[in-house]
């Protein structure tokens, strides 16, 4: 009898318990993922913005470097052009250097010191008065005068070459004193 009583009590407790557990429908709990999605989207957008900023910084650095190189290149070209376009001039039938010509040669010597790999040709020119032979000799004396001055300023002789064109290459073809004064010159060509 005790056994039956225990079975009845157990059934009385177990059956309502089973009914209670099985009779309630399980509710599916929905997790709100919109906040997690938004956080992930914000993190991805922030990472993308940071990458864009890094790329822009790299591009700015490259652009700045290119601008500096371009500016340096322009300065070198301008210095070379100034060197080659600045002539020295002589008085009629003279090969000695005027004080203003010496100043020009000092600037040229400084440029040559700053550009040790460069060599130059000193071209001597004359006006059309005189014979071809005389003008070739005078142009040579003028070129040698400038060369010797540069050597005295410390420029190696091996970097300097002279040539005389006499009256063959006038800067101004007219036949007056203004044109002749322009033709009595030394020009400098970078080799």
Question: What is the gist of this entry?
Answer:
This protein is of the alpha+beta class.
Features:
4 strands, 191 residues, 2 domains, 60s Ribosomal Protein L30, Chain: A, 4-stranded mixed beta sheet, alpha+beta
**Would you tell me which CATH topology of the largest domain applies?**
60s Ribosomal Protein L30, Chain: A
What is the helix/strand order?
A: HHEHEHEHE
Class inferred from helices and paired strands: alpha+beta
* Backbone CA Rg: 47 Å
Number of strands: 4
- Detail the poorly predicted runs: none
Amount of helix: 55-70%
How much of the sequence is in beta strands? 5-15%
Biggest sheet descriptor: 4 strands, mixed
Provide the number of structural domains: 2
Major β-sheet strand ordering: 1-4-2-3
Global shape? rod-shaped
Distinct helical segment count: 5
What is the average per-residue confidence, as pLDDT, rounded to a whole number?
88
Could you give me the name of the CATH homologous superfamily of the largest domain?
OmpA-like domain
The CATH architecture designation of the largest domain is 2-Layer Sandwich
Q: How far apart, in Å, are the first and last alpha carbons?
A: 129 Å
Which CATH class of the largest domain?
Answer: Alpha Beta
Would you kindly provide a written description of the structure presented here, covering whatever features stand out?
This protein is of the alpha+beta class and 191 residues long. It has 2 domains: 42-85; 88-190, OmpA-like domain (60s Ribosomal Protein L30, Chain: A, 2-Layer Sandwich), CATH 3.30.1330. It is 62% helix and 11% strand. It is built from 5 helices and 4 strands, in the order H-H-E-H-E-H-E-H-E. The protein has helices at residues 2-23, 34-85, 99-114, 132-152, 177-183, and strands spanning 88-89, 120-125, 160-166, 185-190. It has a 4-stranded mixed sheet with strand order 1-4-2-3. Helix 4 links the parallel strand 2 (120-125) and strand 3. The longest helix has 52 residues, at 34-85. The chain is rod-shaped. The termini are far apart. The mean pLDDT is 88.
């Amino acid at each position: 009898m005790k056994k039956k009583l225990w079975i009845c009590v157990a059934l009385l407790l177990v059956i309502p318990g089973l009914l209670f557990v099985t009779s309630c429908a399980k509710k599916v709990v929905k997790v709100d993922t919109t906040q997690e999605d938004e956080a992930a989207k914000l993190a991805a957008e922030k990472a993308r913005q940071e990458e864009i900023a890094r790329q822009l910084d790299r591009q700015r650095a490259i652009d700045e470097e290119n601008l500096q190189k371009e500016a340096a290149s322009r300065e070198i070209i301008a210095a070379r052009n100034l060197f080659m376009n600045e002539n020295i001039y002589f008085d009629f039938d003279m090969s000695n250097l005027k004080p203003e010509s010496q100043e020009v040669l000092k600037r040229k010597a400084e440029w040559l010191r700053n550009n040790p790999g460069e060599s130059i040709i000193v071209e001597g020119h004359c006006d059309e008065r005189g014979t071809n032979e005389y003008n070739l000799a005078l142009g040579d004396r003028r070129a040698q005068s400038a060369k010797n001055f540069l050597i005295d300023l410390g420029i190696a002789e091996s970097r300097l070459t002279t040539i005389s064109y006499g009256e063959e290459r006038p800067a101004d073809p007219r036949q007056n004193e203004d044109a002749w004064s322009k033709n009595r010159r030394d020009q400098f060509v970078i080799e």
